[in-house]
Write a structure and sequence with these properties.
homodimer; 136 residues; alpha+beta; Arc Repressor Mutant, subunit A; Dna Ligase, domain 1; 2 domains; two-stranded antiparallel ribbon; 38% helix; DNA-binding
Chain lengths: 136, 136
DNA sequence: ATCAATAACAGTAATGATTACTGTTATCAA
DNA sequence: TTGATAACAGTAATCATTACTGTTATTGAT
């Protein structure tokens, strides 16, 4: 069987994610970790992000067009995606654990999970939009 | 302003999607349309799929890892994605129109829509899995 | 402590999905 | 009929991600 060996690069990636409110992409993690490990390779970041998500320490969010985002919070929760800037925000309160069971009857197979994503424009981009509109 | 001109390639793509129960990827559309237009280019398929989804005639489903899928059914409905084969199925009955309003309070911006995706293993893949397991 | 076995690394090449570019053809309003 | 230009086929480029390769680091067993 395949044992997992310690690596300081992986621990740095884990620490960065856990200390971070946002949901960075692989590239954003890469840019941040580079300050600590200037020679780290993007492949190493991807390999470790996949390792961590496979063993359940982090979550990989694949539901936006564009790059995947990574979330240190593995508890059940949903997200809000800004159509403008692509940033991913938490929606901490809302929770619908009964959905899998309710939807089971009409599903064409066995449901093991679901994702709920809200789309819209975040406050940051709304503010920028207004500024731009009033300026013209 | 930019006017849209008729093209038989685009109408063939539209017709293929509308007459299709599945949610094909750009490549699947390409392979199907090629029987009718042997020289059609994959770029043309992408351009028209994007055009059709921009003007609201079809829906682009970007929430699976891997290629996007396209849906001629633009009415509000959710989907089931098989983790094994990647196929996208409709979940026609379930509908939660009040979610946008309910979630609005805790959203970091303005919600305009949401997507709900169920993940699991479809009956086809369950059957294959059982066959394989019993054969060994 | 030393020593293989091998996981992880940095660096780079390859892949898959999608978009952009280029010169030519088809549509359509005047 | 014609001129403007949208759409085309073909191809090159881009972006996100994975795979490969030779080297380095970790680790369990001597």
């Amino acid at each position: 069987m395949k044992t997992i060996k310690y690596s300081k690069q992986r621990e740095a990636i884990r620490a960065f994610l856990c200390g971070n409110r946002s949901h960075p992409t692989a590239d954003e993690v890469y840019e941040a970790i580079r300050r600590q490990f200037p020679n780290i390779s993007l492949g190493t970041v991807y390999r470790n992000l996949n390792l961590l998500s496979e063993c359940g320490d982090i979550r990989k969010l694949s539901y936006t067009a564009g790059p995947d985002h990574f979330d240190y919070d593995t508890s059940d929760h949903y997200h809000f995606v800004c159509r403008d800037c692509g940033r991913v925000y938490d929606m901490p309160s809302i929770c619908l654990p009964e959905l899998n069971r309710e939807a089971g009857a009409e599903a064409p197979g066995v449901i093991d999970s679901h994702e709920l994503v809200f789309y819209g424009i975040c406050r940051d981009c709304l503010a920028k939009g207004e500024k731009k509109a009033s300026g013209e």
